[in-house]
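Pasting as-is:
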Amino acid sequence: MIGIDTNIIVRLLTRDDPVQFDAAVSLVKASSAAAPLFVNPMVIAETVWVLERAYKVDPPVARQQVAGLLDTVEIRVPETLRMENWGQWFMSSHPGFSDVIIADINRANGCEKTMTFDRKAANSVAGMELLI
């Protein structure tokens, strides 16, 4: 298994550098269900952030693009990301995608809640509560 960084996924989704896009496509074509590419939660969060901030992609569109790419046999995500509410991560209306991932990974690992100082997250992310 080979891990891939954010910039590989961004190239696949934006196609903004033809040479890097072709190299990324070749990497994906060389992988398989038996030898997948590994994408960790930080890469997913950073990819969504880059698409939304640097490329000005509408948040629901950016999240849907990432979800579609990750839902292939060539890509493997950690077991903590294979939950029934996986789609909820990408459909969340909360602007801070990383907050959604943090709360859900914490919940999957036995946390009853995730404390935060972020009022927006506490109001819109399931499992997050405001500390003060």
